[in-house]
Structure formats: C-alpha cells, structure tokens
Amino acid sequence: MSGSSIAALAAATPYFQSNGGASDHSREVRLNKMFDNLRNTDQGEQDTLGAESTMAYLQSLGANLEDASLFIVLEIVQAPSIGEITREGFVQGWKAAKQVSSAVVDARPEAHQQYFSRLLAQLATNKDVFKKVYRYVFVVGKEKDQRALALDIALTYWGMLFSPPGQRWVTASGVDFFEEWKAFLSETWTRSVNKDMWNMTLEFAYKTMEDETMGFWSPDGAWPGVIDDFAAWYKKKTAMDVDA
C-alpha cells in the first residue's frame, strides 16, 4: 500500500511547532494528510480505510492482529468496525489523544507509534486503560445492525483481552477464572452477549481476582442473571471438587 510505512508517512508529514505546540488546525491538516497517505487509492471511499489499509496501519504501529493490542488502536481512532477506520474517527481520535503530561500527541507517525507503545505497556496493569479498551471492544466487535455479540465472537474477544498483553483473569493463587467462565458459558449459555453482560463481566472479573472465594457475591445482589448463574455453578463445582 502506497505511503503505508512509518518512514513514508513521516516524510509526508514533516514536524513543526508553533509557540511550543502545533495548533489544532495545523494538526488537523497533517492528520488528514496522514489519512490520505494511508488510504488505498484503489478503494473508492475517500473518507474510509478499508480492511487492507486498516490492517496495514495497525501493523505499522506495532499492533498484533491476533491479540488485545489490536483493540488499543481501534479505540483511539473510534473505528466503527474491526476492518474499517473513518477519516473523522482517525483525525478526531488522534487530536483527542493526550500524553501523560497532558500534552497533545503530535501528528507524526513516530509520535503515534510511541503513544500506542506506552498504552500497550500499561494494558496489563492499568485498570483505567484496560477498561477503556475492553468496553470499546463491544462497540467495534458487533455487527452494525446488531445490539449484542454472538457468544462465539464474545468468547474470542474475551480470550484476546484476558491474555497477554491484556489483563489475565487469573487469581494470585492461580485460579483461572476465564477458563471457568468459558466452560460455564459453553455448557449452559445459548444466548448472545449484550452490552450489560459484557461490561459487568469485567467488573465481576476484578472482584473475583480480589476475592476468589466470591465472598462478595450474593444471589440477592445486582449482578446480571448470567453472572449469578455462573457464581452458583462455580461454587457447586468447587464444593464437589473438595468432597471428591
């Protein structure tokens, strides 16, 4: 793809500063130029990166298309789907990105790559970073006309998120709750995964990693029914294991 490499993009978007930082307008102009250089001109849409261009861009930043790093970039640019990036999402997403110092991320490929690398390094340990990425996966992962994820798709995404470089759903003593969750859903759940179930699964995951006995859980609590069913299933299973 023409202009897809970091070097080519860098040459097309020279760095300059004004009064200590590029103005919003100049950054927007350069971000639009970056987007144009990423776009495959064989594709008709001027304001959309198709699947080939999107995947090439993700890889140019260092994202692995088979793990959670993929979703970091898609969240930054507010991609509408995994194989598509819009001009508006790309420009506005990178304009909104901030460094630790609250300084804007400069409109240069190297700066974008560095910003991505910093978030990637934090993904496994920073709950705020992980939660932001995790929640966006539901948005970017579902079909545009659907309100929920198919179970097999949700399990695939959970598998990517709950394994390195994401945050493992495993307790300090080694209880692999993601494997238990996956087994439970595969055995008992026949429905799709809606937004509430998706979001609350992460909240439940954090609770179980703090207390693997699930002392926090009560059947009268406010958890979704599927999580209540899982907690009851897991407690019964572990009790049987102890008795055996």
Automatic annotation (TrEMBL):
Indicate the segments forming the DCUN1 domain, all copies.
26-235
Pfam families, alphabetized:
Cullin_binding (PF03556)
Q: Which Gene3D superfamilies match?
A: Cullin, PONY binding domain, EF-hand
Q: Which domain of life is it from?
A: Eukaryota
Stored PANTHER family: DCN1-LIKE PROTEIN 3, RP42 RELATED
Role noted for this protein: Neddylation of cullins play an essential role in the regulation of SCF-type complexes activity.
Protein name as catalogued: Defective in cullin neddylation protein
Organism, by scientific name, is Monosporascus cannonballus
